[in-house]
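Lecture notes, unit on binding sites. The following record was shown on slide 14. It pairs a sequence with magnesium ion.
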Amino acid sequence: MIRSLTIRNWKAFADKHITFSEGITFFVGQNGVGKTTLLDAICLCVTGKSPTADFQELVRDSKQPAEVRLELDANGNRFSIMRKFRRDRKLACEVVLDGRSRGMGWDELTSTALDFLAVDDMFFNRLTYMSEGEVFRYLQEPPGEALNARVKEIFGIASLQTLKGFTEGIIRDVSSSIRDISSELKTIRTKKPADDSQIKAMEETLAKLKEKEKKSYEERDALTKQIGEINGERKNCEGLMELLAEIAEKYGPEIAKTSRASIDDAVQEAIKDLDSDVSSEEENLRKSEVSLGSVQNRINYLRDIETLLQSVVADATKKAEVLCPVCKRPVDKPLADRLIRETKQQIMGAEKEFREIQDTSKTLQDKINSLMQKARKLREYGTRLNTIPKVILGRVKPLAIERVNLLLSSIEASLKEKSEAEKSKALELEVTRKEIEQKTRDHAELKAELTQADRLKLLKNRLHSYYERQMLAEMLTGVLESALQEQKDKNLAHAYRWISELWEKFRPESRWKIVLDEKGVIRVTSEEREYDFAHLSGGEKTVLLVLTRVILCRLLSTKIDFLMIDEPLEHLDIRNRRSLLNFLVSACRKNIIPQMLVTTFEETLIRKYYEGEKTNVELLA
Ligand SMILES: Nc1ncnc2c1ncn2[C@@H]1O[C@H](COP(=O)(O)OP(=O)(O)OP(=O)(O)O)[C@@H](O)[C@H]1O
Ligand SMILES: [Mg+2]
């Protein structure tokens, strides 16, 4: 039962507190005073929604929070609900039960409140609160299947049917899975499965083989590296050999002249010898050039004398006596002529000597050049010898062609040996690799056998559980089917019978009898004749609807003991108004519904006929 309601800053009220009594309470007042607001606020408290509009839009002052608070009793417990919100957000929700207050979320509060009243929100919105719009809608809605569908929903028959459809679906799915598993089971070979220890042993062997393979790879790589190194040595050695052969071929004589056993030393000594030959020949050349200078001087001197003598001859023809420019004695022309002849002969002799010395110098120069060329070439060989790695040179000390030859053959021998070893390592590796491949295949096969055994076990288990599910679903479907039948037979028939009985009782003056068949189709009869539902007036339909509500509420709810009807008297003529009011007031007085909240603006009618036991009038202004 509803005990009190507080509304702050919401819809028609800035601040309103109202307490409720047992029996029927009529809220009367002019349009817009807030009659509907009261019922909507109760609905908002319980279901978290307003049936007519978005409740947040109905906040009056957007700067202030709105609040609705409802206090009610059910089964002897006091329960209080509070919701606070603004236009743009929800603020807080609170429940007080047995004096203990607890904050919770908006939706959590809704389910707590509905649990407390033992109804769902569909029941609350369809049966407990008959809002203004709903009364009007009902008048326009055809009866029969529509009514039946509602009653089914209210009884939960529809959900029972949905549930039955669901369990039938489960049966279909499970049966098809059972078929699939059975056919897969047939295809799996039944073989004795491998045990774990076999697989473990196989894995150990495999690990060892892989270790061996790794080692073989390392050894083979080391051999390949060694072969590479020896090949390098061989190349160097061959280079050395070639160089030595070239030196021997071209400079054999120079080398042979030295007393050295080692070719490199011999080369160095030959270079030294050549250098000293060059020095001595250069000395000769220098001497020859000196003589060339002195011969040239002599020639110059003789030419000067000849010139002087010529001038003496010229002077002697003019004068009787001329002095010799060299000996300062008197010289006559015949003497002078003889002296000139002699001087010319001397000049010719000196010039011949000059040419001879010149030839000697040229020969010397050529010789020096050729010696230097040889020395240069030998130096080049020396440099090339230095490019041969020390390790090689160290192994052929003292350096000689035969020794290099020996080294070369020993290198060839070790190369051959290492290549053989490498080949046999590769062979060994191939064998290990093949063995690993085989063992890996064996391992995979053993594992597959094991997996197949697992799969077999799994499929059997699954099949077992599917059979169980199938059995359960079949049982559940059976139970649901009989529950459905029972609900239909019992509740619907019972409810429909009661509706027609009540119709008789509360509207004895009516010429119509109302019978609802098992499908919920309303049959209207009068004097043994059947009429269409449309024969009922709008008012009669409203009365029938309210009647149906009251009965269904009484039949279906255990804890919820109040009913809220907004403007049920609209559309009714005065006779029907009174008749419906009679029904509602006596339903309350007879405790069919212990508490009813009804809004109306028919104040005069209410005050005239319906004040008294369990009847209250609340005037809103
Ligand atoms: N957000 C709001 N801010 C201020 N007033 C509002 C707001 N929402 C609704 N109202 C007022 O509330 C009143 C409507 O309240 P309500 O529907 O409860 O009246 P009523 O008594 O049921 O009227 P009727 O007899 O016409 O059904 C109107 O006067 C409307 O102006
Ligand atoms: Mg109203």
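Take-home: The longest strand covers residues 2-10.
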